[in-house]
Design a protein that fits this description.
912 residues, mainly alpha, Rossmann fold, Arc Repressor Mutant, subunit A, 5-stranded parallel beta sheet, 3-stranded mixed beta sheet, 60% helix
C-alpha cells in the first residue's frame, strides 16, 4: 500500500519558501524570478501608465509566478502611487463583498443602506485614502468573484478611481464584465508560461548568485518543467541534501537528483495529490514506478476514459511513436510519489501491469530499458540476465555508468551473459575514470571462458581490454602484442582479406579496428592512414560496421596530416550516412567527437558550436557526463577563435563538473583552455592559477585531448610572456613535422611566430605548403608578409582571417601591416590597416601585436595602469582601484601597448 500521511491535504507550501537561500534585501523574496520575466514586467508597467488602459489581467498555471510579478510591478510604481491589495478566497466567493470586507467595515452606518450607497461609499473611501495619488488595486483571485464585489470593482475602474492588476489562472475565472473589458482592449491579458531552459538559467543565477553549470540547469528544468515555484523548492531541497554545491564560483550537482520527500517540494506534491481522484492517483503511482508504459497496456489496466481525462488535464504525455509510450508530463511528480511507495506497493503495481510477462527487450528504447530495470531493482525483484545485460549497455550509451554497474553486477558467473556483462562493467569504469577497476573486471574472465567464446565474442573482449590498457601507462605499450596474440588465436594474419560476412572475417575486422584505435590514441596516424583508406572504401569493404568506424578515424587522420579539406569532405559524406547506420551502437557519438576535432583544426569554430548540442533526454539521465564534455567543447571553440571572455562561461562550468566527476581525463584540457581564456583577456593571476592546477592533473588521455591541452597551456604561457612557452610550441611543431602531422605543426607555428625569426617564418610557410584550405593559406600569407615586410600581403591574410572570424589573427595581420606600410611610405595601406586595427581594438581584449612606430611618451595615468597591469592585476581590479570603468582601462592599455611596442602584459615590467 501507499504510505499516506494524515496531513496529505494540508496543502502548505511554507517550507518551500523557507529555504536556505539568502537574499540581498527585504524585497528580494519577491524578485528572485524576475530576470526571466523582465519582458512581462515591462509590458505590465507600460500598460499601467497608458492613459487609455484600465489595467492588466495576469493569467497562468499555479506556481508560474503571477503574484510575485504583480507585487513587483506595483512596487516599481514607487511611493507616488497608492496601492491596495485584495484577495478573493473560496470563502469570500460565497460572501457578498467578500474581498472588500475590510473596506466595508470602515464605512459609516449611513452608507450601508443600499448596494448603490455601498458602491459609492467604497469608491469614495479609496479616493480619500489615495489622497489625490494614482491608485492601483491588486486582486489575487483564487476563486470566482462574488457579484457585489465585481460590481464595485467595475465602477472603480470605469470612474477612473483606480487601475487594476487582476491575477487568475484563466480569464474564465474572472467576472463576465472583465471579459467585456478585455474584448474592448481596456484590460490587457499577460499570460505567463513555464520557464524555458534559458529562463531557468536566468532564475538560478538570480537565486544562487553565482555561475551555474549547464547540467544543473538542464536537470532542474527537466524535473520541474520550468515551474518557478517548484524550481525554488527544488533548489532548497538539493541545498539541504548537500547535493547542490559551489565549486570554484560555479554551482553544480554533486550527484544525480534524488527527491526523498523531505522538504517543500514534497509539500507541494501532497497539496496537489489531495485534489486528485483515487483512479488518477493509481495511474500516477504506476507511471512513477514504470516511468514509461505503452498506451495500449495502460488503457487495458485503467480504462480509456481515465487516461484521456488525465491527458486533457496535462498530467500525462503520450509520445507519437508506434507504441504510443505514456509518461508523466512533470518528472518531479513521479520522483516524489515514488519516494512514498513501499516495496510491497511497487511489486503490486508491477504485477498489475505486467502479470507474469516481461516486455520484449528488442522492442524497447534505451530509456524504456533503463526504466524497467530501475523499477525491477526498486521492487527488490530479480532481473533476468538478458535484461540486465541490455539495461547495462543502454545505461552506458546514455552516460549513466553507475546504474550500468548496478545492472551488470546482478549477473552471475554461471550466466551466459556474464562475460558480456564484464565488458559493460569495464566500459562503466572507464566512464568513471577508473581504468584499474576496468582492467580488473576484464581479467576476471578466465582463459577457459575465453576459449569457449565464439570468434566475435572473443574479439570483443580483446577490444575491450585494448580500450582499457591505453589508459594505463604500464600497459599501453603491450597493446600491439595483445592484438598479435588475438590474431594467432583466431588464425588470421594482418592484411589478409577474408570474405565478409563470415564470422571469422567480422572478428578479424574487430581486431583491426582496435589496432586503428590504438594508433589514433597515440597519434601515430601516418602508420595506419593507407589501411584506413582501404577499410573505409565501400568498393573494397562490405562490412558496414567496420567501414563506418574506420572512416570516422580516417576523418581525424586526414585532418591531422594536413589534408583538412579531404577530411571535411569525408565528414560531410559520413554525416549523410549516419542515419543508415543508426543500428551501430555509439557511432553517432564517435562521429561527433572526431568531427569536432576536424572542424577545430580547420578553423571552423562556428561549425564546432553547431555540432555541440546540449543533450535532450526525458529524465536528463547522464547529463553530468554529457554536459561537462559539451561545455568543454564549446569553450574550446571560443578560445581557439580568440574569444576568451565568451569561452570562460562554458569552461568554468566544465571545470566545476569535471572536478567532481572526471570524464576520460579531460579535466587537464579544461584547465589549460581556461588558463588560455584568462590570458586572452589579460587576467594573468587567474591564468597562472589554472596553469598551476594543470600541473597536478596530468595523466593519460587521447591524442586529441593531449594536443589541445599542450597547445592551450603553451599559448597561455606565451600570452603571459613566459620565455619557454614559445620554445615549447616550436619544439612541438618540429615533432609533428617529423610525424607528418602538418596541420598541428602549422597551428603551433602560427601561435609561436607572433614575434618569430625569419627562420620560423620560412618554416611556417613550408608547413603551409603541405596543408589544405583557408587556414593554411592564411598562415602562408602571414609568413610571407611578415618575412618580406609586405603590408599588402598581410592585409590579404587579415581579410582571410576576417572571413573565418578569427579576430585575434586578423589583429595580428593588420597591426604588422600598419608598421610595414609606414616604413614603406604606403600611406593608403597604412590608413586601411590602422582603421581595421582601431575597429578590432574594441572587440579584442588584448592585442597579440601592436604597431611600434611613432611611439610617444606615456601619460601619468597610462604609466600607473601599465605598472598595475605588469604586476598581473586584472582590468577589473585596476578599474576598481583607480575609480574608472573597465572600458577606460582597456583603452589606456591599448595606448600603452601601442606606444611601447609590446604585445603582452608580461613585457611591461622593466619598461614602466
Amino acid at each position: 500500500m501507499s504510505i499516506e500521511p494524515l496531513n496529505w491535504g494540508r496543502g502548505s507550501t511554507g517550507s518551500a519558501l523557507a529555504d536556505p537561500v539568502t537574499f540581498a534585501g527585504p524585497d528580494e523574496h519577491q524578485r528572485w524570478s524576475l530576470p526571466a520575466r523582465s519582458a512581462d514586467l515591462s509590458h505590465i508597467r507600460a500598460t499601467l501608465t497608458d492613459a487609455d488602459s484600465l489595467g492588466v489581467v495576469i493569467t497562468g498555471a499555479r506556481g508560474v509566478g503571477k503574484s510575485s510579478l504583480a507585487r513587483t510591478a506595483v512596487m516599481e510604481l514607487g511611493p507616488e502611487v497608492f496601492t491596495l491589495q485584495l484577495r478573493n478566497t473560496l470563502a469570500g466567493s460565497k460572501t457578498p463583498y467578500g474581498c472588500l470586507a475590510f473596506l466595508l467595515a470602515r464605512l459609516p452606518q449611513a452608507a450601508m443602506g443600499s448596494p448603490t450607497a455601498i458602491l459609492q461609499g467604497i469608491t469614495s473611501l479609496i479616493r480619500n485614502d489615495a489622497g489625490g495619488r494614482q491608485c492601483v488595486i491588486t486582486l489575487d483571485s483564487t476563486a470566482s468573484l462574488d457579484d457585489m464585489s465585481a460590481g464595485v470593482l467595475l465602477n472603480i475602474l470605469l470612474t477612473r478611481t483606480a487601475r487594476i492588476i487582476a491575477i487568475a489562472p484563466n480569464i474564465s475565472d474572472l467576472p463576465a464584465d472583465f471579459h467585456w473589458l478585455l474584448t474592448e482592449r481596456r484590460l490587457t491579458e499577460v499570460r505567463l508560461e513555464n520557464l524555458n531552459e534559458l529562463q531557468t538559467k536566468q532564475v538560478l543565477l538570480s537565486l544562487l548568485g553565482h555561475r551555474v553549470s549547464s547540467s544543473l540547469v538542464s536537470t532542474f528544468h527537466a524535473i520541474v518543467g520550468g515551474n518557478p515555484m517548484l524550481l525554488k523548492a527544488l533548489v532548497a531541497e538539493q541545498q539541504l541534501a548537500g547535493n547542490l554545491i559551489l565549486s570554484d564560483s560555479v554551482w553544480t550537482l554533486r550527484d544525480k537528483v534524488v527527491l526523498d520527500g523531505g522538504t517543500g517540494l514534497d509539500d507541494i506534491v501532497r497539496s496537489r495529490w489531495a485534489r486528485e481522484s483515487p483512479e488518477t492517483r493509481a495511474v500516477i503511482e504506476m507511471l512513477s514506478c514504470a516511468r514509461t508504459v505503452s498506451l495500449t497496456r495502460l488503457t487495458g489496466v485503467f480504462g480509456t476514459d481515465i487516461i484521456a481525462d488525465m491527458e486533457d488535464a496535462g498530467l500525462l504525455s503520450v509520445a507519437r511513436s508506434d507504441n504510443r509510450w505514456v509518461t508523466l508530463r512533470e518528472q518531479y511528480l513521479g520522483d516524489v510519489v515514488r519516494s512514498w511507495l513501499s516495496v510491497a506497493r511497487r511489486r503490486e503495481l508491477r504485477t498489475r501491469l505486467l502479470g507474469d510477462r516481461e516486455p520484449d527487450v528488442s522492442h524497447m528504447t534505451l530509456e524504456e530499458l533503463i526504466g524497467f530495470a530501475a523499477w525491477t531493482h526498486e521492487c527488490e525483484a530479480e532481473l533476468r540476465p538478458p535484461f540486465s545485460l541490455a539495461a547495462a549497455e543502454a545505461a552506458n550509451q546514455l552516460f549513466d555508468p553507475r546504474f550500468a554497474l548496478t545492472c551488470a553486477g546482478s549477473l552471475k558467473k554461471s550466466d551466459d551473459e556474464w562475460v558480456a556483462g564484464q565488458r559493460q562493467k569495464a566500459a562503466s569504469y572507464l566512464l568513471l575514470d577508473l581504468p584499474l577497476q576496468a582492467l580488473a573486471a576484464l581479467e576476471d574472465i578466465t582463459p577457459a571462458q575465453l576459449q569457449e567464446l565464439a570468434d566475435m565474442d572473443f574479439a570483443e573482449v580483446v577490444a575491450a581490454k585494448c580500450d582499457v590498457m591505453v589508459w594505463l601507462p604500464e600497459h599501453k605499450s603491450k597493446v600491439p602484442e595483445l592484438l598479435d596474440h588475438a590474431r594467432e588465436r583466431l588464425g588470421v594474419k594482418r592484411g589478409v582479406k577474408l570474405s565478409w560476412p563470415d564470422p571469422l572475417a567480422a572478428a578479424a575486422n574487430r581486431i583491426s579496428l582496435s589496432e586503428f584505435e590504438y594508433h589514433a590514441f597515440t597519434g601515430n596516424f601516418g602508420h595506419i592512414i593507407r589501411d584506413l583508406e582501404e577499410a573505409a572504401d565501400p568498393r573494397l569493404n562490405n562490412d558496414l560496421w567496420f567501414r563506418m568506424q574506420s572512416a570516422i578515424i580516417l576523418m581525424e587522420a586526414l585532418s591531422t596530416m594536413g589534408r583538412e579539406m579531404d577530411a571535411l569532405q569525408l565528414m560531410r559524406l559520413l554525416g549523410g550516412q549516419l542515419s543508415d547506420a543508426g543500428h551501430i551502437v555509439g557511432l553517432r557519438e564517435k562521429f561527433s567527437i572526431r568531427a569536432f576535432t576536424v572542424l577545430l583544426q580547420a578553423g571552423r569554430w562556428r561549425q564546432c558550436l553547431d555540432l555541440v548540442n546540449p543533450p535532450r533526454s526525458q529524465e536528463a539521465r547522464g547529463l553530468a557526463f554529457r554536459t561537462s564534455a559539451s561545455e568543454l567543447s564549446t569553450g574550446l571553440a571560443y578560445v581557439y577563435s580568440g574569444r576568451g571572455a565568451t569561452a570562460l562561461e562554458s569552461l568554468l562550468s566544465s571545470v566545476a563538473q569535471l572536478e567532481l566527476r572526471p570524464v576520460m581525463n579531460t579535466l587537464q584540457a579544461a584547465y589549460a583552455a581556461t588558463a588560455f581564456a584568462y590570458a586572452q583577456i589579460g587576467d594573468a593571476g587567474q591564468a597562472r592559477k589554472y596553469l598551476e592546477k594543470l600541473r597536478t592533473a596530468r595523466g593519460e588521455c587521447t591524442f586529441a585531448v593531449r594536443t589541445v591541452t599542450n597547445f592551450c597551456a603553451d599559448m597561455a604561457g606565451r600570452w603571459l610572456g613566459e620565455a619557454d612557452a614559445t620554445n615549447r610550441l616550436l619544439a612541438s611543431a618540429r615533432e609533428d613535422i617529423v610525424e607528418g602531422r602538418f596541420t598541428l605543426a602549422g597551428i603551433s607555428l602560427l601561435g609561436a611566430t607572433v614575434n618569430g625569426s625569419e627562420e620560423d617564418y620560412r618554416l611556417l610557410e613550408n608547413v603551409a605548403g603541405h596543408r589544405q584550405g583557408p587556414l593554411a593559406e592564411m598562415s602562408r600569407l602571414i609568413a610571407v608578409g611578415t618575412r618580406t615586410k609586405d603590408a599588402k600581403v598581410l592585409l590579404a591574410g587579415g581579410e582571410l582571417a576576417a572571413s573565418m572570424e578569427l579576430d585575434v589573427v586578423e589583429a595580428r595581420c593588420v597591426a604588422l601591416a600598419v608598421d610595414f606600410a609606414r616604413m614603406a611610405g604606403d600611406s593608403g595601406s597604412a590608413r586601411i590597416a590602422q582603421s581595421r586595427l582601431d575597429h578590432l581594438s574594441s572587440t579584442v581584449s588584448s592585442l597579440p601585436i601592436v604597431p611600434s612606430s611613432g611611439s610617444p611618451l606615456l601619460t601619468a595615468r597610462e604609466r600607473q595602469i601599465a605598472r598595475l597591469a605588469g604586476r598581473g592585476t586584472s582590468n577589473r581590479d585596476i578599474a576598481q582601484e583607480m575609480g574608472v570603468s573597465v572600458r577606460t582601462v582597456e583603452g589606456h592599455l591599448y595606448q600603452v601597448f601601442t606606444k611601447l611596442g609590446v604585445t603582452s602584459r608580461g613585457d611591461l615590467p622593466g619598461l614602466v
